[in-house]
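--- STAGE predict ---
source: upstream dedup step, 1 unique chain passed
mode: sequence only
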Amino acid sequence: MTETMQAEHSKRQLIKGWFALSRLPFHIVGILPFLLGTILACRIAKAFNPEVFFLGICGVILIMLSTYHSGEYFDRKEDALSAVSHKNPFAGGSRAIPVGGMPHFIPLWTGVVSLLAAAAIGVILQFAYRTGPWTLVLGCLGALPGFFYSTEPVRLVKRGVGELFIGFCYGWLPVAAAYYIQTGTIEPVIHWIGLPIGFSIFNVILINEFPDYEADMATGKKNLLYRIGKARGKALYVALALLTCLTMALSPLWGVPFRVIFFFIPFGLIALFIVRAMLRNLHDDPAKLELLCGLTIAVNMGTSLSYIMAYI
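--- STAGE serialize ---
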């Protein structure tokens, strides 16, 4: 292989590794709630500025990039162990560093750059587009917990509260922020809508910690599952899955169009299927656990989609 061919191969590997550690398919869990908030602004307040929407969605993506990239850097020890112990694509990071050969310092710097770029967008939205005095506050509520979810010395994930922040940052926050930058207010119904989305994304994080349990124990990554154990973790997952279904069923009482229930029925059935599987301890089988991890993401996306379809 010539030097030119080697350079081209290295370049392709670097690009491939960057896309892997960016985990682009997982951005949908943040984009859908933001889209929902924008649709609510259109339907309820009759407000929509396409430039504000474009900048806002770019800010959301940059915040998720900063979260994923910083996590890849600070979780590389656990991810290296997970790469050996299981092949679950929903846990253990992207494996771009331990397996793909990505230099470990790259995601740290790209994470910082993404965070700064998101901050610049927040400044533009608040002061150039005059989206409201709480614009930067709402942005910081998403950006800082995301970046410091894994980043030392804060590292929220090891303090047993990281999952709570994820539930907030991917649940209520993107819906409220999207609505706010279009209208300058936050509609009360958003507080209810954020509950099932928050419960379901919390469960995404929680079940994804099951495949990494041994690696996290070995490295002292004291996340929530590490602290409460698998038995209580299973009980918590079941409780939140049922709460997701319950809060969705009660949504019409808060002014959400009744048809949301019909849109959610298939995803509610999936949630109940997962609950049954967890109660039967099927998650102890790595292959079945991988399926349950994927279905949990489907429930989260389906929750947001059900609201979107109800308002469309």
